[in-house]
Design brief:
The chain has 563 residues and is an alpha/beta fold. The chain has 17 helices and 18 strands. It folds into three domains: 138 residues, OB fold (Dihydrolipoamide Acetyltransferase, E2P), CATH 2.40.50; 284 residues, inorganic pyrophosphatase (n-terminal core) (Alpha-Beta Complex); 106 residues, Diaminopimelate Epimerase, Chain A, domain 1. The structure holds manganese (II) ion (MN).
């Protein structure tokens, strides 16, 4: 049996008389996150948000948009096909429509147009002849394309959160926390939706100052935070500081929206349709990351992300059900294709694999290389690039890394690449097919050099025994939510546990009641051979609400038969 690395072992817990195990957990976690002062971590006041005006160009951008919208100009929002791009598009369009303005929006099609504001997208934008274009979650390197739009008489405002590339920043109003002039800005790692939200705060303030609403009620922007929360979780921005506050309120808004269907007309429809369909008993960042996010993403991956924007904007309950059905269809196709790809990619990996993987196959689906890279980087615990051949004959890869900065690694092999970009944990690159062997060799080398520079996540964070687990423990744990990047949901190791015969739920999920009110679940466990016996298990903990009864539920993430 292999030893699992655990950050906090059984002997580190102290007597419960010195604070319950749950309280000890919270204290340890806060210290681990660098928060020795719990108040700041549990303080969700929106007054902590950065002053929108402290982001360069917000004031001007808001003024131009207000002028355009109130002056009856044809305004178009241009987004991106991932969840952050879809939610930021819906965020602006929903707010503008709620103010009574009619606006257009456009999301590039991944397959026919490709990523971001490129030549093909410019063409499609011009064909609907807008007078003012505002981008969300993209455009920071589209200098040439913005010039084309400007020449055609279209005014452009760029809002983005991706890293600027020197010499490629468009010559127009640009709102991006990562611009050099925003050094010291409190929301440096905000998502595209977060940046769009700051712009909305400034627009609402500007409209208010003009007396736009008169005596009527102005839109409550708190009610827009559902979309910001979704963008934050799906884009995996660190859920600390500003992003944590925004996500917390966004989730609160979603919970409230499900019980009291009031407020913004359009804001709750998609959520109620989703709840009706999925029947979840609570909503947290995992609901967004593992259920709603993948559905939204599937549209762009398999067909067209516009389906997802339609779903988020739809105000008619019946039409909303139809939108969800389309997304579910895309997601089914996605799952099927993805599992074929994971199997095939796994076949390309030798047992003694290098420290960084580059897996390319012409059968791979371009929309799915990113998630497959994510799965494999988890499975093989190393930075992984997965790619396929593009229509232009190049190889396009998407990569994921949990240990070491992927953009730094790609930079070190830049001489072999046609281009690359992204973030530390997720990035993409493109190169010529003849470079593949060299890319594989050099990427493995730079990845092995990067190991140890980031922390490999331990197999579990806390060693516990069954007696320590009760509802109070989970209540304490829940205080640390919303979980996400930078504040990952803790994993618990139970070193020794007897599992008897499970109950089979649904088709092939397994469930054990291991103590009164404590149950363990193994999703898809029926496909494995888990004979009764002594096990070591790693679990994630949550509450299960069923018919008004609350139980403690541990989801088995990995296990090992002892002896
Ligand atoms: Mn984004």
């Amino acid at each position: 049996m292999s030893e699992l690395p655990v950050a906090f072992t059984l002997d580190q817990w102290t007597e419960p008389s010195k604070g319950s195990f749950g309280q000890q957990l919270v204290a340890h976690r806060l210290a681990a996150l660098g928060h020795r002062e719990p108040h700041s971590f549990f303080e969700y006041s929106l007054s902590q948000l950065p002053d929108p005006y402290s982001l360069a160009n917000v004031q001007l951008g808001a003024a131009r948009l207000i002028e355009g919208l109130t002056g009856g100009k044809k305004v178009m929002v241009v987004g991106d096909y991932d969840v952050d791009g879809v939610t930021s598009t819906a965020l602006l369009v929903r707010f503008f429509r709620d103010c009574g303005f009619s606006v257009d929006w456009l999301i590039p099609n991944r397959f026919s147009e490709g990523y971001g504001l490129n030549g093909l997208v410019v063409k499609r934008i011009l064909s609907s002849a807008p007078q003012l274009v505002v981008t969300v979650d993209n455009g920071i390197t589209a200098k040439d394309e913005v010039a084309l739009l400007t020449q055609a008489g279209v005014e452009v405002i760029i809002t983005d959160h991706h890293l600027p590339v020197p010499g490629k920043t468009p010559e127009c109003l640009v709102l991006n926390p990562k611009l050099p002039e925003n050094q010291g800005f409190a929301g440096l790692d905000m998502s595209g939706a977060g940046v769009a939200f700051l712009l909305l705060l400034a627009i609402r303030k500007g409209l208010r100052e003009q007396g736009f609403w008169g005596t009527a009620k102005e839109p409550n922007l708190l009610e827009s935070l559902d979309l910001v929360a979704l963008g934050n979780v799906a884009d995996q921005v660190p859920l600390l500081g500003v992003n944590r506050v925004l996500t917390h309120h966004g989730l609160e808004q979603m919970r409230r929206r499900l019980v009291e269907p009031t407020g913004q007309k359009s804001a709750g429809c998609y959520l109620r349709t989703f709840q009706e369909d999925q029947k979840f008993s609570f909503i947290n960042s995992e609901t967004l990351g593992f259920r709603l996010g993948p559905l939204i993403n599937a549209a762009g991956r398999m067909e067209d992300a516009s389906l997802a924007v339609d779903f988020l904007l739809e105000t008619n309950p019946e039409a909303s059900v139809g939108c969800l059905a389309a997304l579910k269809r895309c997601n089914q196709q996605r799952k099927k294709k993805q599992s074929t790809m994971v199997t095939r990619a796994g076949g390309l990996i030798n047992e003694a694999h290098p420290a960084g993987l580059v897996l390319v196959d012409e059968s791979f689906h371009e929309g799915l290389v990113g998630i497959v890279a994510s799965k494999l980087s988890d499975q093989y615990q190393c930075p992984t690039l997965v790619g396929t051949y593009s229509e232009q004959g190049t190889i396009k890869c998407s990569g994921r890394s949990k240990s070491g900065d992927l953009t730094v690694m790609l930079q070190q092999i830049e001489d072999l690449l046609l281009g690359f970009g992204g973030h530390a944990a997720a990035a993409g690159c493109q190169f010529l097919p003849e470079q593949l062997p060299e890319v594989q060799r050099r990427f493995a080398k730079v990845a092995s050099g990067q190991l140890g520079s980031g922390s490999m996540s331990p197999a579990a964070n806390y060693e516990v025994n069954l007696e320590m687990l009760n509802l109070e423990f989970v209540h304490q744990l829940k205080q640390l939510e919303p979980f996400g990047r930078g504040n990952e949901k803790p994993k618990f190791l139970i070193p020794k546990l007897r599992l008897g015969s499970p109950r089979v739920m649904g088709e092939h999920h397994l469930k054990w009641e291991v103590a009164a009110g404590v149950e363990l679940i193994r999703w898809e466990g029926g496909k494995e051979n888990m004979a009764p016996g002594e096990y070591q298990v790693v679990i994630g903990l949550s509450e299960n609400h069923f018919r008004g009864k609350v139980t403690l539920q541990g989801v088995i993430e990995s296990y090992q038969l002892l002896g």
